[in-house]
Design brief:
about 220 residues, mainly alpha, 7 helices, about 65% helix
């Protein structure tokens, strides 16, 4: 099953390259296909390098959630319909380029966070502290408390800017913001339980990195 998914992502990346190389109206969708397939493949690859013990079929994040798959499907439908009804909307190259830069920045930031965290990174929020679990505050974690979420947030919005999907840009921004707000609060409760005052001090010094998200509130 791992080989099948890896081959599928490689095939999708190849198709994206073919579309990107042409001058058709689907060129920007080719950029999107390359970005999407590379994101999911690299999630598995970096997990294999960093934390092989947690590696599984789910590390591709292809089956992240029903809502995630629905969001992807919605973006494809919007792109196709608007391409038919408003073809000029899908030919704004400078806007698609901005989206591509957002995608590259977001994915690079997320992978940098995963590599910096090493074996401390896991796709699933941990409820029990392992012997090797340490609080990482260096590298990109010195910029943001949750750089992997910041990267994913801007990557997801960037994919829709790339596709020039105005409806999904708004929808992705709202849905992603709500998801990461809840995820960060859940995770910070665990981190406070694991590291106590050490994490609280880190929390006071370093922002979450996401707009209007401060993390879990602590009563002093």
């Amino acid at each position: 099953q791992i080989a099948v998914r890896a081959c599928f992502l490689g095939f999708a990346f190849g198709c994206g390259l073919l579309l990107s190389a042409g001058r058709s109206a689907w060129r920007h969708f080719g950029w999107y296909m390359c970005s999407l397939s590379l994101f999911h493949y690299s999630e598995y690859l970096v997990t294999a390098i960093n934390n092989p013990r947690s590696l599984s079929l789910d590390s591709f994040l292809l089956n992240h959630s029903f809502e995630y798959n629905l969001a992807a499907l919605s973006s494809w439908v919007e792109f196709t319909l608007e391409k038919i009804l408003f073809p000029e909307l899908k030919q704004i190259t400078w806007l698609s380029t901005v989206g591509l830069l957002m995608v590259i920045f977001g994915d690079c930031l997320r992978k940098a966070a995963m590599l910096t965290a090493g074996s401390n990174f896991n796709h699933i929020v941990q409820n029990e502290k392992s012997d090797t679990h340490t609080l990482v505050t260096s590298g990109v974690y010195g910029w943001f408390r949750h750089p992997s979420y910041v990267g994913w947030f801007y990557w997801s919005i960037g994919t829709q800017v790339l596709l020039c999907n105005p409806i999904c840009v708004v929808g992705y921004a709202l849905a992603s913001w709500r998801f990461f707000r809840e995820r960060i609060e859940e995770e910070e409760i665990t981190l406070i339980h694991f590291f106590g005052e050490e994490y609280l001090e880190y929390k006071r010094k370093v922002p979450s990195g996401l707009p209007f998200i401060r993390g879990v509130k602590v009563e002093l």
